[in-house]
Design a protein that fits this description.
Elements (H helix, E strand, L loop, with lengths): L24 H8 L12 H12 L5 H12 L1 H28 L3 H14 L12 H19 L3 H29 L6 H6 L12 H8 L1 H6 L5 H4 L7 H29 L19 H14 L3 H34 L6 H4 L10 H15 L8 H26 L16 H18 L16 H18 L20
Length: 493
């Protein structure tokens, strides 16, 4: 027996029983790492799963990038790309689940813009297409709402995200079943599963390169499941419930996401019309045009399309709320170790609601700043999705690489333990992360001009350059890693 009452020689896969000291297993592990419990540990398995599921969301990744991925290489690579990416992403999720056991926004505005356009007429009938200034205002308004809601107790967010699960599961099922039934004609199975076609409008002539870019919709959609890991300090039995929430979120989204892609692709009426800037949705949002064509073709009105777009927009709203929750916990954890400027401010916990409120608002302000280029640059969404994906998925690489190289004797496994399979799984996961981060830095259109340039490499270079500069001139002198705070004042660094 070790000092915590666990069986030292427990075999792989066996649940190790905690000591009967009255502490939650997650709080005990937190104390072992040198941190005192500061946030409320009141999240159950279902609540943690709700936030993790809502962070991924069923529609937020697929809906905004569906059109561009379809354009690059046709339906076959879009459909099968989801299956391939799901397979490799599972390695990352399993690796993160083992580590956890041991330790949206722009597209939402885009969907809202389509709802307003179809509700006030169409692009052909004088409907209102929000200009860039109004679009930016919608984007910022949503961000502020998410920040306000996240300032309250986490239990409020968990309740909202519980609604989110049913909203997305029921709404997603309705869309997947109803859309192909409503469409007057449907595409053949051979078109959906085997048709490959590159588009001259992208300027990309290389077929392998087009396939790589077509996979981006899947790579962007299938992340965020690690939100459960960010909430471990607030989750009961986090060493068990965290991994379950991670794996179940990815599994459900993988299945439902593929069904959603199939429903959209089978329901396409005229592929060439989807991107026409003079069509009913001004060629701005391919899924909205697919919904419009299906319902207008059958019923000669767009009411059904608007209702389903509201369902999709609700998914964006819930996703943005959960992403804000998750991001704030990352900022809080970093600032608790003194790892970012003004850490004393960002690590403060609201005295009543016990949430890192300052960290929430920091994330909201940064999110709004990222949206400012909307006013001038047409390809800002590509840059935003690239930066977000690289930052989020790239963050997985650090603990996974550490788990891969750390000596086994220095790793204390939790109840979810891969045993000898751990290093091979981590290797595949790490290589997949490196590949994913690399492809999001590639140009997405040719020829490369100011209005088609992928600004993600530039933005990433600036951020990394500033961090390196800060490290060389200052941070290396005082930042030593985790800061134990058990038995110390919260205000000490």
């Amino acid at each position: 027996m070790d000092s915590n009452g666990r069986v030292a020689s427990a075999s792989e896969g066996e649940i190790r029983e905690p000591a009967d000291d009255g502490l939650d297993s997650g709080e005990r592990r937190l104390n072992e790492l040198g941190y005192k419990q500061e946030l409320r540990r009141e999240m159950t398995l279902f609540k943690t799963f709700a936030i993790s599921f809502s962070t991924m969301t069923l529609f937020t990744g697929i809906t905004p990038l569906y059109g561009s991925s379809l354009l690059y290489a046709g339906p076959a690579t879009l459909v099968w790309g989801w299956v391939i990416v799901s397979f490799f992403t599972a390695f990352v999720a399993v690796a993160m689940a083992e580590i956890c056991s041991s330790f949206p926004a722009y597209a939402g505005s885009q969907t809202l813009q389509s709802i307003i356009l179809l509700s006030t007429g169409t692009n052909k009938d004088g409907g209102y297409l929000a200009p860039r200034g109004v679009f930016l205002a919608m984007y910022m308004g949503l961000t502020v709402i998410w920040a306000i809601l996240n300032t309250f107790a986490l239990d409020v967010i968990a309740f909202i995200d519980t609604i989110s699960i049913w909203w997305q599961v029921i709404g997603g099922a309705v869309i997947v079943v109803l859309l192909p039934l409503v469409a007057k004609t449907t595409q053949s199975a051979s078109y959906v599963f085997t048709h490959f076609e590159t588009s001259e409008s992208t300027g990309i002539r290389s077929k392998p390169y087009a396939v790589i870019l077509s996979f981006l919709v899947s790579q962007y959609s299938l992340y965020g499941y690690d939100a459960a890991a960010h909430l471990t300090e607030e989750t009961k039995g986090a060493d068990i419930n965290g991994p379950i929430a991670i794996l179940s979120s990815l599994g459900i989204i993988s299945v439902f996401g593929w069904a959603y892609i199939l429903a959209l692709t089978f329901s396409i009426q005229d592929p060439s019309y989807l991107y026409n800037t003079s069509n009913e949705t001004a060629g701005t949002f391919v899924p909205a045009q697919i919904l419009y064509d299906a319902f207008h073709g059958r019923y000669h009105n767009s009411s059904g399309a608007i209702v389903l777009l509201v369902v999709i927009w609700g998914s964006f709203f819930f996703g943005g709320l959960s992403i804000t929750t998750s991001a704030a916990r990352v900022v809080y954890a970093l600032s608790r170790d003194g790892g970012i400027p003004f850490s004393r401010v960002w690590r403060k916990v609201h005295p009543k609601y016990k949430v890192p409120a300052n960290a929430v608002w920091l994330c909201a302000v940064l999110c709004m700043l990222l949206g400012l280029p909307i006013l001038k640059v047409n390809v800002v969404f590509t840059a935003i999705t690239s930066i977000c994906t690289i930052g989020w998925v790239g963050g997985y690489a650090v603990p996974i690489f550490a788990r891969m190289v750390i000596p086994g004797k220095n790793f204390k496994p939790g109840p979810f333990f891969l045993g000898r399979a751990s290093r091979p799984v981590c290797l595949v996961a790490f290589l997949w992360i490196c590949y994913t981060c690399s492809v999001f830095l590639l140009p997405t259109q040719y020829p490369i001009k100011w209005d088609t340039f992928n600004y993600a490499p530039m933005a990433l270079g600036i951020v990394l350059g500033l961090i390196m500069f800060w490290w060389l001139v200052d941070a290396r002198k005082w930042f030593k890693g985790p800061v134990r705070n058990i038995g110390t004042s919260h205000d000490k660094v």
